[in-house]
Amino acid sequence: MDAVSLRQTARVIAHSSSLSVRNTFAAVPWWLWLAQVLLTSFFAMAFFAYVADFAQNPEVTVAYVVLGNAIQAVAMVTLYSVANLPAIEKHVGTMPVLISSPTGLFTIFVGMSLFQIMAGFLTVAVSMGYAVYLFGLDLSAMHLSVMVVVIVLTSFSMAGLGMMIGAIGTYLRTGMIIASVVSYIGLVLCGVNFPVHYLPDWLQPISYGLPLTYAVEAARLAAEGATLTEVFPQLRMMLLLGVGMLVASYFMLKGFERMVRRKGAYEAF
Amino acid sequence: MSPPEDAPPIVVERLTKVFPGKRKRPDKTAVDDISFNVEKGEIFGLLGPNGAGKTTTIRMLTTMLIPTSGVAWVLGKDVTKEEVAIRKRINLVSGGERGLYYRLTGRQNLRFFSELYGIDPKTRDRRIEELLQLVDLTESADQRVEDYSRGMKQRIHIARSLVNDPEVLFLDEPTLGLDPEIAREIRALIRRMAGMGTTILLTTHYMFEAEELCDRIGIISEGRLVALGNSLELKDSVNNATVIHVETREDPYEAIETLEGMDGVIHVNSDRVPGRFIVRIQVDHGSDLLTEVNEAMRGLRVLRIGYDEPTLEDTYISLVSGHER
Amino acid sequence: MNVRASYAAFRQQMTHFLTDPQWIIPSLIAPFMFTMVVLMIYQDVDGPVVLQAVLGGGVLGMWGNTLYSSGWSISYDRYNGTLEPLMTSPTRLMDVVAGRSVWNTLIGLSNAVLVFVIAEIMFRTGVGLANPAEFFFILIMTLASLASIGLVFSAFFVLTRASSVLMSSLEFPIYVVSGAMFPITILPDWVIPVSYILAPSWGVDAMKIAALDGYEGIGLGIAGSLAVMLLLTAIYIIMARWLFKKIERNVRSYGTITRF
Questions:
Q1: The domain at B239-309 falls in which architecture?
Q2: Torsion angle in degrees (nearest 10) through CA of C42, C44, C46, C52
């Protein structure tokens, strides 16, 4: 890629990102959007906190659950929104226009997902705040820089997963539904609300194929005072999975563009 | 206050609609003090550019919008206060791809809307079959609307609008975006409905459609009714204008620029058809600018040049661009 | 109330749903996943607590469907361009939404059944109800109450483009205060009144008393809880009527009918 195409790519990413922001706030005033982020993250956490409180399971305490849900909050925001991007373009009828532009779908969706990643950071930060100040999570041993790295990589890897799910969704009519399903799967499979070893043996390999599982593990270690070196294995897996899924989404979107051009089936799927 | 006993089906008096401005923008006057009547069985056309106020006017008359001031009566009932009584006896076609339940069949859509109008089951079933025949959709009645072509969707819109056998029918751009053959069928249908006694108010962009269909036309621009009458009366109203008609082989864009700045020229309108360019220059009545026009066209192959009567389109452009009131 | 029009709307919603049932999945996912999580957390606990979790999951399923399907009802018409022909008809919008709410609530019931069935297969919960006949009667009453609250939701959502934001903002708060998965008595004192104004919370309470041996709940017994629920339901219907009238008038004044 030469300097000109690099500059052009950066411009498309910047403009797609700006479009995503404007789209969001054209439909919904910023304060309502923010209120939704604040309310949803609080109540999602509160639900499981009260369940844990009622269940009195010594392994699954309120603190255990709220930390998991604080990290999982990024799935609710980043993963769901990014996974839904291609489905929304198909739904509103702009997919043919995007495909017929000289810029690939991957670049456009990377740009659009930047805002969702920022929103993910905000959601996690807010959720952590709730966990500490409202639900009594003790983070006194934590190194802040380690937790920040965990959160950044969580957002990145979830965006990668979101791009891959979104790319799968372009081939199907049910893209929006798949995004919905996947964003909740983390609740069950990724050690958010109970340890992974509670799951049947045949399900656990799936857990370890999802970046959120490593994110939650890393966050739990970081909360107990782990250093970067100590959480490195989890961080490495998140990075590998995130990059791998991003690359997979690139090729899937390219494949989709080629297939649609060959068949002329823009309104299908 | 109510209209007299023998009042026409549609009576509009000084109707105005102002939309409050949002986010520090000024208020928008979408319809400004318009008055007109529509007689029983008449096809009345509202002609105007985008944003002129045609759709806002129709929405007020179909009780979907409350006027800011002025009054309107449809079938003797006040559009502001007696909306339920009006809705039982009117209907509206907005057209386009939307406005139907696409996962339901054509027949199911008709049946659903019939129920909303309280049509008794026997009449409903009979009427649905008649309407499907009228719009030539009997064979496709049990297909889902999402599988219909655009023309079929428009036809089922029209069928839907007739489920309650309305006395007044409002049509908002009924042939917009349709193939010429389908559009011709829709216009024939509209004429047939008027022939059966239905009063029709339609909005359209198409001059020839207004001229062909409408008994009278109201031209609306920036919310105001700038002209009202049949097409002959409207053309006569542009009585200070003559039209010079020119056809050239090459694009006369430079000539048009010259003519637009010339004294005595009211308006220049150009169009391109296969093989030639058509320019119609409205000049002040009495101005003899034929020589000047010829001079401006120097260097171009002129296929035809001469005086012409103003068409409805000339009248419309003249009125809407504010040169004639 | 225009019963014929409501029935027509019920049929329209049913047909719409049956031609493309996949759209049930988003409102089914959260309750289903939540139930699975709760059952996993409860795995060392057995008996009535587990049944309560399954019951709770079913109730969440009904809530989720009411919120999304009824909340989306009028917004869908606005998006689809069918709000205009609906509003130019002589039938009140509320009568149309009422018919659809009834269908949506019935589908919510199927959410509940699905959650029960899957919980039984995966966790062998052994759903044994203490008083089955009473339970099913209360269930029907609770469904009617949910339908009425669906009416209120759809009235609120008709005016704004932010309806999807409002809907998703309400989802989790309702899950928390509904008393579905845990007794509302463990919530902070200031939250409990919010639970009390949700009519279905009383229905849930009555269902648990009927289903679980020895469960006391809020303390009014089945009859008391049912009475409060029915009273609140009547209030919702009155509220919905008033809201729809007000909203129709506002929409006619500001012309926001076709913004989507």
A1: 2-Layer Sandwich (3.30)
A2: 0
